[in-house]
Write a structure and sequence with these properties.
Number of helices of chain B: 11
Structural class of chain B: alpha/beta
Order of helices and strands of chain B: EEEHEEHEHHHEHEHEEHEHEEHEH
Helix content of chain B: 25-40%
Helix content of chain A: 55-70%
Number of helices of chain A: 11
Radius of gyration of chain A: 21 Å
Oligomer: heterodimer
Largest sheet of chain A: 2 strands, antiparallel
Largest interface: A-B, 25 and 33 residues
Number of strands of chain A: 2
Distance between the termini of chain B: 40 Å
CATH class of the largest domain in chain B: Alpha Beta
Largest sheet of chain B: 6 strands, mixed
Distance between the termini of chain A: 25 Å
CATH architecture of the largest domain in chain B: 3-Layer(aba) Sandwich
Number of strands of chain B: 14
Shape of chain B: elongated
CATH superfamily of the largest domain in chain B: P-loop containing nucleotide triphosphate hydrolases
Strand content of chain A: under 5%
Shape of chain A: elongated
């Protein structure tokens, strides 16, 4: 039944135009970034490698699809949550707004099955958006700019990855991005279970993300203490996959914290939805 | 088949929303094959009761048994045999009607063929326009989705709301047909007494969350005293003519060209003859039996 319900939920998601806002935004934004990089990318490469050129001779194609994709991922992962909430915030509250709980919940299916199928369909939407981003930035980037070594600047170092050592890092980075965006999806679903209008969950999720990001950005003693408890602290940790050697302990911690947030939000959503009186 | 087999048993059902007591200690039973009228004015607690029957909201206290099983413990098994319209039927507007029915068919707990879906669209008169969503169409589609999985119990919450007179008649005929030909048990909520009178065999009237009366429709509505509106050409003449007669005491209200009177059914022709013989032009004699009037009758009777 979960499989059937998830298919139905996916049908509902992909028959709404708002679902395509995220895809359209990425579909417009990434080619624009490609164009910008095509015109100005060499300046960026020169900026990153300015310290190296005095001591080393850099040869090869550094302005390549990998580097472009890395830059785009850096630029967009903080904005993708807003696209996720447009759909995830509507998953439960949208049924209340439309009055369709009355035909859905009078069927012989449990509320837990409904929440689970909605969560799974939200996860699939989130994954498909990130995969679309991967396709647009990485695949299209490789087609336009070709491949080459990836040059990554860290806090105190610059790492150059060989061509053969890059692709798996991107796979894992995009996988991690799916995990972190699933936290956003489950948070939006949680807010969605509380109200009967989709606008509220969308605004509330965005507000939480903005507040958490601001709190994470201020380097003040008191905020430093609460930072580990904010999920936004971990959502950009896909960058860990572009470190050498990999800090597995840090990656594991981030995965566990994000996974824990998903479980907490999902459990809270299920609890609230199971107890909810359907008055819409 | 045992005609007195209980399909719905409600015991001491209560629902409280913070300070509002929406349903108060409700008790009633619906037997197999009944068309059970559930009457009450707007805000009486009908929809709250129906939502509890369908587990959309949880009772504060009391028990609901359907098909001799408690709803709380056997929700899924019970709902597989229940079809319902709750208030106005709403659908996924971004999907065609047929797709809505297909989706609901898949989660109805029974095998529902595409042929069955088309048969139902035909039955409710939507076969040729299944992609539009007028209010009347939603209502018809609501009936279709309630019948998809051929349920034993059909709960219809104000199913004729928003339909034109022809549509209302069609729905009433359908209810009668489902009951008589297919032996379905139908729980029909309405605030229109005449609608219940036409189709139901048993009924309950509720007000302010509490039961007022329950019983056979024929017994409850077979009062010998009727309230009638009599339309005449000159009410001033009527007052004069009826002065000193036994009719004078039972006039309830008078306007320019009509008056309302509570009268024994058998006395109506006598009064009519008396008025005509005294030169009053009687244009119409219209029985008045609104739900409110009936309430007044039974509540004053209870006093």
């Amino acid at each position: 039944m979960i499989f059937t319900l998830t298919r139905i939920e996916l049908l509902k998601i992909f028959r709404k135009w708002r679902t395509y806002i995220g895809f359209i935004a990425i579909g417009i934004l990434v080619p624009l970034l490609h164009l910008a990089m095509y015109l100005e990318g060499q300046n960026s490469i020169d900026f990153v490698t300015r310290g190296l050129r005095d001591s080393f001779i850099l040869v090869g194609n550094l302005l390549n699809g990998y580097w472009i994709s890395y830059i785009i991922l850096n630029a967009l992962t903080i904005h993708i949550p807003f696209l996720i909430t447009l759909v995830a915030g509507d998953l439960l509250a949208g049924e209340a707004t439309a009055g369709t709980y009355r035909i859905l919940l009078t069927r012989p299916i449990s509320r837990m099955q409904i929440v689970t199928s909605k969560f799974l369909s939200g996860l699939i939407y989130t994954s498909s958006l990130i995969l679309f981003l991967a396709f647009m930035s990485l695949a299209v980037g490789l087609i336009i700019f070709g491949s080459g070594e990836l040059i990554v600047s860290g806090d105190q170092s610059i790492i150059i990855f060989e061509k053969s050592d890059i692709l798996w890092r991107f796979f894992l980075a995009y996988g991690f991005a799916i995990l972190s965006m699933t936290v956003v999806c489950s948070l939006a679903m949680f807010f969605s279970s509380l109200v009967e209008n989709a606008i509220g969950p969308i605004v509330a999720t965005m507000a939480v993300i903005i507040i958490f990001i601001i709190l994470s950005a201020f380097d003040v003693e008191i905020l430093r203490d609460i930072r580990p408890y904010l999920f936004t602290t971990y959502i950009l940790d896909w960058r860990e996959f572009f470190d050498d050697p990999l800090d597995l302990a840090e990656i594991t911690k981030s995965v566990l914290v994000l996974g824990g947030h998903i479980i907490i939000f999902f459990t809270a959503t299920s609890f609230i939805f199971n107890k909810k009186d359907i008055l819409s | 088949m045992n005609s007195k087999e209980k399909v719905i048993e409600i015991s001491q059902l209560t629902k409280r929303f913070k300070d509002v007591l929406a349903v108060n200690d409700m008790n009633f039973t619906v037997n197999r094959g009944d068309v059970f009228g559930f009457l009450g004015p707007n805000g009486a607690g009908k929809s709250t009761t129906i939502r509890m029957l369908l587990s959309l909201i949880s009772p504060t206290s009391g028990t609901i048994k359907i098909f001799n099983k408690t709803l709380k413990e056997n929700r899924r098994e019970i709902l597989a045999n229940v079809g319902a319209i709750v208030e106005k039927p709403d659908f996924y507007q971004y999907l065609p009607a047929i797709k809505n029915l297909e989706i609901l068919a898949k989660i109805s707990g029974k095998e529902v063929t595409r042929k069955r879906i088309f048969e139902l669209l035909e039955l409710v008169g939507l076969a040729d326009r299944a992609n539009r969503y007028s209010h009347g169409m939603k209502q018809r589609l609501g009936i279709a989705q309630a019948l998809l999985h051929n349920p034993e119990l059909i709960v219809l919450d104000e199913p004729t709301t928003g339909l034109d007179p022809q549509g209302m008649k069609e729905i009433r005929d359908l209810i009668i047909r489902l009951s008589k030909e297919e032996n379905k048990t139908i729980f029909l909520s309405s605030h229109i007494l005449s609608e219940i009178e036409i189709v139901a065999n048993r009924m309950i009237i509720i007000n302010k969350g509490s039961k007022i009366v329950e019983g056979e429709v024929s017994e409850l509505l077979n009062s010998s005293t009727l309230k009638v509106t009599i339309e005449v050409d000159d009410t001033a003449a009527v007052i004069k003519i009826l002065e000193g007669t036994r009719w004078n005491r039972i006039i309830e209200s008078i306007t320019e060209n009509k008056f309302v009177i509570s009268i024994e059914q058998s006395a109506i022709p006598v009064l009519n003859k008396y008025l005509v013989e005294n030169g009053v032009m009687v244009n119409a004699i219209i029985p008045v039996r609104s739900l409110e009037d009936y309430f007044l009758t039974i509540t004053s009777g209870a006093k």
